[in-house]
Amino acid sequence: MARQKGIIKLDGTIGDITFYKSKDGYLAREKGGIPADRIANDPAFQRTRENGAEFGRAGKAGKVLRNAIRALLQNASDSRMVSRLTTEMVRVIQEDVTNTRGLRNVIDGEAELLAGFEFNISGKLGTTLYAPFTATVDRAAGTLVANIPAFVPLNMVAAPGGTTHFKIVSAGAEVDFENESFVADSQATAILPWDANPTAVINLNNAVTANSTHPLFLMLGIEFYQQVNGQMYPLKNGAYNALAIADVDGN
DNA sequence: CACACCTGTAACCGTCCCAT
DNA sequence: ATGGGACGGTTACAGGTGTG
Predict the structure, then answer these.
(1) Strand (E) positions, A143-180?
(2) pTM, whole model, 2 decimals?
(3) Among all strands, which nt has the closest C1' to A2 (CA)?
(4) What residues does A228 pair with on adjacent strands?
(5) Which of A195, A177, A215 is closest to A59 using CA atoms?
(6) What is the dihedral of CA A190, A131, A208, A141, to 10 degrees?
(7) Tens digit of pLDDT for each residue in A12-47?
(8) Closest nt by CA–C1' to A52
(9) Burial (CB count <10 Å: 0-12, 13-18, 19+), residue A84
(10) Which nucleotides of B are covered by protein (CB under 7 A)?
(11) Nucleotides of chain C within 7 Å of a protein C-beta?
């Protein structure tokens, strides 16, 4: 086994050489591995294939959910969001007690675990919008409502420097994970001044299909603006805009 | 032999780099 | 400049291999 004597410490693989750190220091060796067709066919890899199947299902589920709110995500997500969401989807799937290993899915899992998920790690709703809100999901009526009583923006919104205005946004999504389709609706307030004057009561009503049999998701977010010479500009390209899953009705 | 640590598999997307 | 390709990050698992 090769031993690295130089000052350059590496971790990972370059070409066919793998570098890693062990308790004996930094080592390097030839890349190893398992032939792909063995993982695909060898009975010994049954567990591994089951993991793969569920992991893949989690990735797809995340994609459908993201697609449902793509427009909002454009203004409020970070580069690691996809992998964080995949992690959570795996957790959801692992809560499925109906199906056997490898066949577990989101629908029979605990989609409620996704409640509280933050789409933008550098602008979390939980540490931005302190005004209390209530989320109401009416499955029969097919409505997902975010209600925020009147509040003073300066006190209840921790806005990034440069903010002059903000907007509260919401989305309701009815997601069919099985068929990878969705019905979504989004609502937003007008652009409001970030000042000491109380807002009006905010009631964002998102409509999807009445009596749906699919999981329902309510997203709530905030977008920041800077007013320059009467024009509204998204603040720092939306780097600090927040968007989170406010409520989930898994069915 | 025990231990440590690697790899490939699943789906997806942002972020690089490189070549045209 | 633009497009394509590679890679990292997300989970859990089993097998392979060098070290001590």
Answers:
(1) 143-148, 165-176
(2) 0.81
(3) C18
(4) A231
(5) A177
(6) -120
(7) 555 445 555 544 445 555 554 456 666 666 666 777
(8) B10
(9) middle
(10) 4-15
(11) 8-20
